[in-house]
Amino acid sequence: MTDAVPTLDDVLDLLAGHEERAHRTLNLVPSENVLSGLAKVPLVLDSYHRYFFNESGAPDRWTFRGAQGLRDIEMKVTIPLLQRLGKASHVSVRPLSGLNGMTLALGTLGGPPGSTVVTIGPGNGGHYATPSVAARLGLRVEFLTGPTPHDIDWEAATVLLRRVRPTLVYVDQSHCLFPVDVAELVRTVRAASPETVVHVDASHWMGFVLGGVHPNPLDLGADSFGGSTHKTFPGPQKAVLLTNDPGIDARIRETQDYLISSHHLAAVISLGIALLEFAEFGPGYAAAILANTKDFAAALSERGLTLAAADRGYTAGHQLWLDTESDGVPAPLASDRLAAAGLVVNYMEGLPGFPGRGVRIGLNEATYHGLSGVDVPELADVFATAVTGTEPPAALAARTAELRRRWAHDGQRSARHDHLTERAREVVATALPLRYRAAASSFVAAR
Ligand SMILES: Cc1ncc(COP(=O)(O)O)c(C=O)c1O
To answer: Model-level pTM?
Structure first.
């Protein structure tokens, strides 16, 4: 493409090209997932344009009334399902993303400027942004650290907590193969600094917690938890905060009004649809991610690739970390080779315990598409061969596309799904014709 600004036709071409590629390739980025077709519907409808503030539905509170007819979806679908699956009496669906949810949690629970928050050190997988967000809110930051990337030193934690008496311990694992032991963390905090609030940012673990295959942080004693709804949970790009503590809920509500105006109602509705679906298949899906990821790790290792944490079973979640550099393949080159084979991965510096760059992958999206145990050896074969660069990428890309085709055909079909697809088509059709185009041409014609 030249330096000229792409035309509307060019933009549609780019979208169509991306869409076509997305259907024949496989995304293995652990921070991403896909939405079901049904859950995408609200994102193209009038719901996308509307503010929604009147949670009570009181007739005299519809100062913004554009979403009046949609209130029940947020209040009777999304929030109750989150309360049920998240085992929490209070839920905020206002955060726009994990980072926005982190800002809301730190802004609410971190205390006044000058207070101290304790979070997970970068060497143990803490999120890169937490210290900076906290510092911008005037908070001091201290880190929990440990003898390995996967363990926290609880004695050192006790000493730190007694010394700094933080307002908040914010658990922010982002590079994570094994979840922090929240029960031990809560015990340690309660003993060393009883006034401290414990919040678990479960962005990467959300699908496991809501699917019931990882313990719920609230059951383990945390005061609140939350995180993104688009990593292991197959939902829209959004985040949520949950608690059983009415005081914490009141503080979150007080703060969120000043950090978030539009909470992207269409995404809240999309989340409601994703939760309705997840309530049916979530536990099976979450368990399948765990099984697939472990099997995939073993299959890659059998094919000669070096993975982190081999001595402890590679992972207890959806992430795997590959040290391709120790296998003689620089991580960016591995990523390029994999992309040519139709496999999209995430490479980076700073993976805990890695001297150089590493490749981070996740099986959450592949499992959503239909990856099952019988496909793991084939996918591992394509992956390992691509990294070593020993076969033409086009042949590997064809094998990846074949896996995608197989899963599309194996997809569960029933009269109920056909009926829902037909209804969704009818609803989406009401958003057509595309009025922006029509309006733009009438302005031009009027001049
Ligand atoms: C613990 C944690 N918090 C926040 C975020 C940011 O989430 P988002 O990208 O949805 O803003 C991430 C993303 O990886 C994360 O792992």
So the answer is: 0.96
